[in-house]
Amino acid sequence: IISVALFFGVFFGINYPEIKRSEYVPTICQSLFATVSPRFCCDLDCSCNYAKPGLPECESLVSQSESLSTTACDQNSTLCPKSANCYNNCKIGHYKNCNSCKYVNHGNCKMNCVKCYDVKLNVMYNVNDQQQNSTYIQNFRSLNDANDFLNSHKPYNIFWCYYNPSSIIEVVLDRNFTTWKWVLFAFSAFPLFCWLIIL
């Protein structure tokens, strides 16, 4: 039962959105303008060890830390996010941090945060001969990478993009699959596959 729940949780929570994205319709986008906004991005390094009692839940800790102001942090280091331990519930939390720890309800994780950069790219494209405007957002861990992206998508530049036929204001710049998500899917499917063979 746990294997089935993990399989469907991973598939519908992580893989299914990528499958749907592969159905997006190709079109030509024109860049209008773009902005770069710094913020904090936090990652979790998790183990299969049980977390100590009293630690905060990782989902909440990450959310709180990523909402902190980079400007305030630059002015006062006490307002920066701190590295901290937290507990991760693999039944409802960050599946990619669970590895083989699906039987550990409160796995121990360490959160680390760095400054990252959101590029908001305003684009124009055609949908059934009708002009449509939208905003595409991509995150970068390096300011240099963010600036390289900006230079490749200067105002009036044109490039391929893909819109969601069910929600035409949703646009992406690629439909590629993410390797780690499908590796995770394979690991979650393996116990279920073995169980079906045994039956």
The count of strands amounts to 6
Give the mean pLDDT. 81
Number of helices: 5
Give the H and E element order: HEHHEEEHEEH
Domains, number: 1
Percent strand: 35-45%
Measured on Cα atoms, how large is the radius of gyration?
A: 20 Å
Pick out the low-confidence regions. Answer: 4-13, 180-185
Query: What structural category do the secondary elements indicate?
Result: alpha+beta
* Proportion in helices: 25-40%
Sheet with the most strands, sense and barrel status: 6 strands, antiparallel
Our measurement of the CA-to-CA distance between the termini, rounded to an integer number of angstroms, reads: 14 Å
Shape: flat
